[in-house]
Amino acid sequence: MKSVRSVVNNANAKMITTKITAGFASKVGAILAVAGSAVGLGNVWRFPTETGSNGGAAFILIYVLFMLILGVPVMVTEFVIGRHGHKDVTHSFLSLSGGRGGWRWMGLLPVVAGFLVLSYYSVVAGWTLYYAFEAGLNGFAGKDAAQYAADFAAFSSHPVWPSVWMALTVTMTCAIVALGVRRGIERGAKIMMPLLFLFIVVLVCCSLTLPGADRGLTFLFRPDFSKVTGQTVLSAMGQAFFSLSVGLCCLCTYACYFRKDVDLMKDGLKVATIDTLVALLSGLIIFPAVYSVPGLQPDAGPSLVFITLPNVFQQVFSGVPLLAYIFSLFFYLLLVMAALTSSISMLEMAAAYFHEEWRVSRPKSAVGVSLVCLLLGTACSLSFGLLAEVKVFDMTIFDLFDFLVAKFLMPVGSLLMCLFVGWVVDKEIVRQEITNQGTLRSPFYSLWFFLVRYVAPLCILLIFANELGLFGFIQKP
Ligand code: PHE
Fold first, then answer.
1. Are 82 and 264 in contact (CB under 8 A)?
2. Residue of 125, 272, 311, 385 with fewest CB within 10 Å of its CB?
């Protein structure tokens, strides 16, 4: 039986919303678009870096655990919120809360987060585009290891070029978002995601035939728990949030465009599986290759992809320059596409708000947000060179943006969304969304609800308390 509250909420929702007209045309398109948001530099760049610096397989196991108990439940929570409102994030919170408790202000989260995240993400996306260009021109051939490091340092600290490449990626992103949900975002995902998989498969096959493949596999799949520290646990949680794009209402924004017959739980699991698979496959490309060059270690940190790998590709295939060329080109193109499908979702988060709330046309809204991101992004980019000395709380501008997004907004946003769906929203509405008005069985519903109501908020609070130094059972880095 419907509770009075749910009837009131529904009536409220009808009054305050004119339903959105844009939407994904197909279920496959919806999954690919969400997977496109999830699969990004987080998988191909951040995951191998984190795995490398945190000791390999043990980190991966903890990461997968966090995906299951935190990442996927929060993702489905975002789907519930977004699809119920079926318009934009503000309206979703407004209609689900019945206008109480100021929850509608959560609608601003994707706007703030969208600006912040796109601004610094597009800097790294710009580097990948430049590296793809260099690979295309065979610019990596015939250099020694020290030269790659010097080249990267010179490029990333240059006052102009990194910003130009960043501007190029923002422009491409903007063009796709301006085209609209179906013609831009969905079509872009339908073209780029299969290509991305093709590149990954080709690269994994090449990598597994290299002489260091067995050591790479051992590093990835044989856990050494003696290497696990509190820092490993924190990094694994951060990686799970970042990789699934949860906590910023980005997925809420996409879920507003879902059709009513999308199975939210199943699709959440599918996206998480695709995302984890791509991360693992990226590890399978990178670590065997790194171990194939004597003396190189997998813990090079963020420079792994931009300094270690170009060197690896040239050395490993030194006898066959054509293979070195193809491998590098495919790898950086893979990074570019992964970065683009994610940055599209970042721009959409903020652009959708101005389009829906302020009634600005979609192209104008996309261009406006992009221009602001270009300004902020230039500051982030310059923080590797001219503005390297500008520090806020002892962090460069780039690091500050990354900290605000990954360490603050993502966990806080996730916590608020779990509390909202677990404790504030009428349970009946939540069940109706998950079971598609009772037409699906959804065997994991109770488990999911339990995780959202108790486990996820508790985990996030504990980690926060630890960050604030309230207790010392997880040692700080
Ligand atoms: N999940 C994306 C990645 O792995 C990053 C992202 C974060 C995308 C937040 C959208 C929102 O690269």
1. no
2. 385
State the distance from the centre of ligand 1 to the C-alpha of 350, rounded, in angstroms.
14
Per cent of the chain over pLDDT 90 is: 52
CA separation, residue 473 to residues 153, 233, 395, 408, 462 (Å): 38, 12, 26, 21, 10
Instruction: Reply yes or no on whether the pLDDT at 142 is more than 90.
Output: no
In angstroms, how far is CA 330 from the centroid of its own chain? 21
The residue whose CA is least distant from atom 7 of ligand 1 is: 245
Atom 10 of ligand 1: nearest residue by CA position: 245
Tens of pLDDT along 75-129? Answer: 999 999 999 987 789 889 998 998 888 898 999 999 999 999 999 999 999 999 9
Which ligand 1 atom is at minimum distance from the Cα of 117?
A: 9
Give the residue whose CA is nearest to atom 9 of ligand 1: 245
The Cα-based distances of 293 to 219, 303, 306, 340 in angstroms read 15, 16, 16, 30
Check pLDDT > 90 for residue 6: no
Q: Whose CA is nearest to atom 11 of ligand 1?
A: 245
Could you give the angle at the alpha carbon of 32 between the alpha carbons of 30 and 38, nearest 5°?
Answer: 105
CA atoms within 13 A on the CB side of 364: 7
Q: What is the mean pLDDT of residues 446-454?
A: 96
What percent of the chain is predicted at pLDDT more than 70?
92
What does the alpha-carbon distance between residue 114 and residue 248 come to, in Å, rounded to a whole number? 8
Distance 387 CA to ligand 1 centre (A): 25
For residue 191, the Cα-to-chain-centroid distance in whole angstroms is 19
In single-letter form, the type of residue at position 468 comes to L
Instruction: List, chain by chain if needed, residues with CB within 6 Å of any ligand 1 atom.
Output: 37-38, 40-43, 117, 242-243, 245, 248, 250, 342, 345-346
Distances (CA, A) of 228 to 134, 224, 242, 402: 38, 8, 20, 24
